[in-house]
């Protein structure tokens, strides 16, 4: 113990600092870390499973899996050879996602500003609750609502848009098919992504430093000019991140879109036309009666969708964290 | 023995503060009453924090408000330009008259009140997303005032705030690149741009080093030639150096009260109230 260490030439080295955790602490630590690890593990296994199953399709189709529009299952009776491409579906996914964002984003940011700066105290809590409950409505309910309630109205709106803006190619209409269009699917998505964008925007706005708000008011700012000069510049990044999380949700949305959208394996520029695409809906659509090789192709499609949503969410979180850290 | 020494020291302190204050000639530049507080009370929820404050601020003078922490000085000046009401549970009673008109009268546009009564805060708070130039002119944008000669106004405000020579070559840099003292002078320049009659300063130097503090005190002296200034300070040297009048606030556990107000030299040389004397000689607070 007390033996003198002979010749220590290199000066002091830092000691290892340890502590012996109590038994109860060890158990708790085990529980929470396994919870964290399991979610990581599940995420990893899912992507591995999809990738492994889709591997053969990726090999045989190559890049054309994401660029070509055809989705033809192998059929011996018809003598067709299999050809799988999700290009049109991928394009359609992005189109309806952006339509959803176009309508949902301004509404959500407006709702967040209202809740943060205009709503009277007694209204705030119930409103926040209502917005949060919107996120808990099952997506099939949104789908049915979209199909039976929204669509009859939205078709009329689409006709108006076509009448006044039909000269712009995306609003033109080659026939008279206004139902089940990307426009209507986008509107349903808009409603579905409002809660997440609203709650993130509210969180970011709430962090606006009070001294800047007071400085603006002390200079004779009106509420709106204060918001424009202080709150929005501060919260911009976080709000954009929230919008991207909304986009992520829109891209992955399956059942609601499947209910209202008419899937067509072609890229059509007209958003009011009853022809659209969605990778997630494609999978639901084909899954029931898919043959073994087609099933593999669907899994490959699932992998691509998974990667796209993962990337969108990753970027969104990075943006939000960066804004929040700026202080 | 110990008491003797203490008394000696406090006597010397009073003398030195009084001699600083005596260099100021109170009331010489007075142009009448600019801002008047009449029987002002304040509450936060059920808590009565200010009781019956009546105080005149003469136009073209500097009034310092001194007193220990928690005596309601800051609450009082925030009542003067209606910043008090941003605290959800805050309430007030009494009147604040600007040019004889109550700033709390019904139907008044509060943004106009705050244009007339500007405020500089304890912590420098320039807008970080704006350049130096945009910061100075931000009040015009915020209050939606259009002017033609913005460059002239920009220079004028920065000169009066004592910052022009330091920033004239970098007006397009962000306000956050300046030092703390420069940022505070930038905030003063920003307040000046909307041409207020009254400028309220809530411990404007408490976050700054002594050199920056002196610069700002010079600025306050210069500004007082053209406007009414109310400054809250914990630093009695500062009150003695910059103010014409001094008000002493105190709370004995209950709501804060205005114990005494007088020309600054009187407060430091010949205070009427024992409590004022105790405070300025450093016996408490």
UniProtKB/TrEMBL annotation, chain A:
The keyword Transport applies. GO terms for biological process: phosphate ion transport. Its main location: membrane. PROSITE patterns: ABC_TM1. One of its GO terms (molecular function) is phosphate transmembrane transporter activity. It is found in: Cell membrane. It is a multi-pass membrane protein. Keywords: Cell membrane, Membrane, Phosphate transport, Transmembrane, Transmembrane helix, Transport. The chain crosses the membrane at residues 31-52, 88-115, 127-150, 183-205, 297-320. NCBIfam families: phosphate_pstC. Belongs to the binding-protein-dependent transport system permease family. CysTW subfamily. This is Unannotated protein. It comes from freshwater metagenome.
From TrEMBL, chain B:
GO terms for molecular function: ATP binding; ATP hydrolysis activity; phosphate transmembrane transporter activity. The keyword Protein biosynthesis does not apply. SMART domains: AAA. One of its GO terms (cellular component) is membrane. InterPro entries: AAA+_ATPase, ABC_transporter-like_ATP-bd, ABC_transporter-like_CS, P-loop_NTPase, PstB-like. GO terms for biological process: phosphate ion transmembrane transport. Pfam families: ABC_tran (PF00005). SUPFAM superfamilies: P-loop containing nucleoside triphosphate hydrolases. Keywords: ATP-binding, Nucleotide-binding, Transport. PANTHER family: ABC TRANSPORTER I FAMILY MEMBER 17. This is Unannotated protein. It comes from freshwater metagenome. The lineage of its organism: unclassified sequences, metagenomes, ecological metagenomes.
